[in-house]
Each structure stands twice: as structure tokens, then as C-alpha cells.
Amino acid sequence: MTDISSPPTNSERPDGWWRSAVVYQIYPRSFQDSDGDGVGDIPGITRRLDYLAELGVDVLWLSPVYRSPQVDNGYDISDYQDIDPLFGTLEDLDELIAGAHERGLKLVMDLVVNHTSDQHAWFVESRDPASPKRDWYYWRSARAGHEPGTPGAEPDDSPAAFAPSAWTFDPASGQYYLGMFSPAQPDLNWETPEVRSSVYEMMRWWVGRGVDGFRMDVINLISKPAGLTSSGPVDPGSAGFMQIANGARLDEFLAEMNREVGLEKNNLITVGEMPGATVDVARRVTDPARHELNMVFTFEHVELDKQEGGSKWDLADLPLPRLKGNLAEWQYGLAEAGWNSLYFDNHDQPRAVSRFGDDSPEHRVHSAKTLATVLHLHKGTPYVYQGEEFGMTNAPLTEIGHFQDVESLNYHTLATAAGVTEVEVLRSLTRKSRDHARTPVQWDDSANAGFTDGTPWFGVNPNYVGINAEDARRDPASVFAHFQKLIRLRHELEVVREGRFELLLPDHDQLWAFTRTLEAAPAGDEDQPRALLVLANCSSTPADLPADGLPGLAGAVLVLGTHASAPEEPRLAPWESRVIQLG
Hints:
Belongs to the glycosyl hydrolase 13 family. The chain has 583 residues and is α/β, with parallel strands linked by helices. 25% of the residues lie in helices and 14% in strands. Among the domains are: 118-187, Oligo-1,6-glucosidase, domain 2, CATH 3.90.400.10; 398-432, no CATH class; 500-581, Golgi alpha-mannosidase II (Immunoglobulin-like). It has an 8-stranded parallel β-sheet with strand order 11-10-9-5-2-1-13-12. A 5-stranded antiparallel β-sheet has the order 14-15-16-20-18.
């Protein structure tokens, strides 16, 4: 059996290297401040490269660091080929790339090309109706019979993600432009060939600087439905954010991007964020034979704890069978063609240990470990979000003045105006706000958790005194140590990377159980295991193993466990997980 007790190492991998990789997401604003202004920056990331190498991850994904007015924390880009002074300079980024490569780490940039900032030079020029860039964006006249700029005159009824309407009137040109997220984020018109060629040119420029891949923000929105692909009137009833997703030319655009940028040719990692993507869409987009993307971020599993048909703020309980069944559906759906991305945490989600686990002092460590075990033992590429690797929790945000995110503040304004009580609004915000993911990383127990010598842009979670990276690094039983072992398992074991997935006990409301199996041991390494059983008690009470429904455990070996239990022990403690090599 492979020894997983020593720290994991990184190595260069052949084609398809991302199938055995683990990606670490960095939200730069909250990662590490180097100059005392209270905002995380690129030199701060460089300062922490040894920590990331010690963790054992293979790829660093940076949320946007481009020049931006920061209306949506950098997802409103005004210059794709410059760095916002808030985060540093291009030279700082070059040093980060070089430092990462020296440590065997690859670096992925966030690509936001469904929309730009309204301050991008392309959009500024497009506001002139005579400009050759007019059709680089979606410009439409007022609804028939309505005075431009008056309520109800918007071309259709589509809402924006962060505003009541997706259409904003521009008095200078007398028309409306489309911004599916906010008025500060106008959507690019990918039907225009010059838009696509300019995006590809920009991507090639980044590849030339040493970037190893791209995470593509809401990339399935770049192909819009027929009503928006011409300059004619649109259907006034075509409301609904998701109605514009997964358009007819999506595959064409992605294949063209792959070819023109040389994504496969340069062996780059590509992951597309695709809200509303189905299993069928994801399988098609990630099928290697189609030459589009390596993998996609899906949203179904992080939308299960809301009421059916409601918004993310309409809270609902999430029974375990529903969560594990959804992930299993994606495992089966992408088993023969395509590839899964695996995540619970990211910059848009509350902390997993608080959301899906139990962040109480009694259970936080074990539930963080168990959630990680379940996720990393699925088939696909795991993503670790900063702080997840040592069990950071949701912050105690209890009043509206504690929140900063535009989505949260917009919801508060709209919901209270609609008559929802302050208590109900805050109940939703304290559970689901994106702000929970954006509190500064808790590096140690010094002032401001070691994040900054100045005043942090967002308050540090006060539990940093007991939950921080430095303490976790020194503790061999910590969440951090457990993540190291999980990452090493993926690097070392073919069955973790490529084994067939089978969900067991689908209706059990405490146990998450599944197997990973290979038809044969890897060539030249007959000692590698061919079958693993993962058992996880995802509850805060003990769970007995059922008499049937699980493989026999005679001759089984414990590969990794959260507790000192034997593989065949018939009861799992609260939030106990075991990875078992079957005989």
C-alpha cells in the first residue's frame, strides 16, 4: 500500500495532467496583504507560495486581478491586459508566475469575457451609434409604444443578477444596452467576429506570459438566444436570467477558442463556469473528442438548499440523500465522456463546513475532514478554496452593516422593499451570503490574523485565534494534514484518479458510501489497489453500518481515516470517515 504519511510533492505530468491535479483557488483581495493597505495583493500571494507547495496542490487559480472599477470585486474588467494597482503590477504577476513554476505549481487566470466593465475602452467607444464597435455589445431601442428611458420601456423583461432590469438606458445614444449582471457589466456580443478575435488575441498574450490555463466565468452565457442575435426587436416576455444560457453557438465558440488560442496544443487547463448547465451540456462540452473544455463548474449541488423555484435566499433543508444523489448523477453522466470538477467552496459560496457540515467546536475538525474526504474521493479534479484546507467557517455577520457584497446588499434592498422582514432577510444572508467566503485568510493568531499590518478591507472572523493556518500546520491531526493526505492519494493512486464510481446506500440519511474500482491494476504497478470503499458519517450523531448494502470487509485495510477505528468497526462516530482498501 502506498505510504501517504509524508508531505505530498508536485511533479510535471503528461497530457491530461489535470486529471490527477488539485486546484487551489485564491481570492486575491482576501488572501495576503503585503503593503499594509488592508487589501490582499499579488506580492502577498508570492509570499505564501511555499505554504501552497507544502499543502501539495498543483494549480493556483487567481480570481480577477485585472484593472477594474471593482463594482463586482474585479469581475467588471476595464483592461484585460493590465493589473489593477490595488493588486500590484504586471511585473508582480510575472514574479508570481515564475515563483509558482519554480515550485512545480501552475497558474490559472480568471477569464471574464461574457461581459466587460462599462469603463472598458471597447464599451466607451461602442456608445457612439456610428462607432464600428457598436455591435460589440447589445444595443436595442425602447419597447414599441414607450418613451425611451421611462419605466417599462426596456426592450424586454429580463432581470439582471444584481439589478431589477438587464437593460440600462444610455441617454447619449438613445438606446438600451444589455448587462445580465449589472449596469456596470455590459454583455459582449459574441456574434461579432471581431469580438471573438480580440478575446482570443488577449488570451494568447497571457499564454505568452506563462499562464497555464483559464477559468472561464459564466462562459455558457456567451451564446445568446435568437432574439438577441440581431439588432431587431426582442420578445418583451423573454424574462429570466437562465433563458440566455447554453445558446445554439456555444459549442462552436468554445471549439473556435480552443483552436485559435491553442488551448489543447499548449496543454493548458480549462474550466468553464456554467450556471444552468445540464449533465448533457457538460458531457458535450468536456468530451475530449469535441476539443472544447477540460471540465465545467456546475451549480446543481450548491442550489439544493433552496426552495424549489425560489432564489438562493429562499432557504430549505438539504437531506443527505439529495446531495449525494446529485453528485452521483454527475459522476455517472460524465463517466464515459467528459470530466467532473469537484467543489463545495468557492468565492461565491458560504463556507462548506458551516453549510454542509457542523462548525461547532466539537465537530468542526472532523466534519471539515469528512466533507473533504467525500469530495476528493469522487472522480474529477478537486478544487480547494483558500482557508478550506484548515477549516475556516462562516463569519458572525448578524446585521446589514456587516455585509459588503453587492449581491447581498441588493437582496436586502429589494426584499425589505417588498415587505420581507429584516429578521427573515438577515436569516438568509447569514446562511448564504458570498461575504462568508471573502473574509481574510486566517494565517495565525497575531493581529488581523496575519493578513495585514493595516486595517483589513473586510473584518477578520474573530475565531482566527483558534482557527488558523499556522496552528493547523503544526498539528499532525489537523484539517490541513488531512488535506495533504487526500492530495497525496490523488497523486499516487490510479484508482482515485480513474476508478469507476458507484454510490451505495443512496437513501441512507447519515452515511455517504461509495466505491471506486479499476478493472485491473495499473500496468507495471501491481501493488496499487484496485478497489476502495469510502464510508462517511455525515451527521453529528453516531451511525451504525447496515447489515447489507456494503461490500464485505474481510481483509480490508484502512487507507485514511478521521478516527482511530478499524475498517470493519460496525459503528461510525459523528463525522467519521474511512477510506478502505478492499481485499
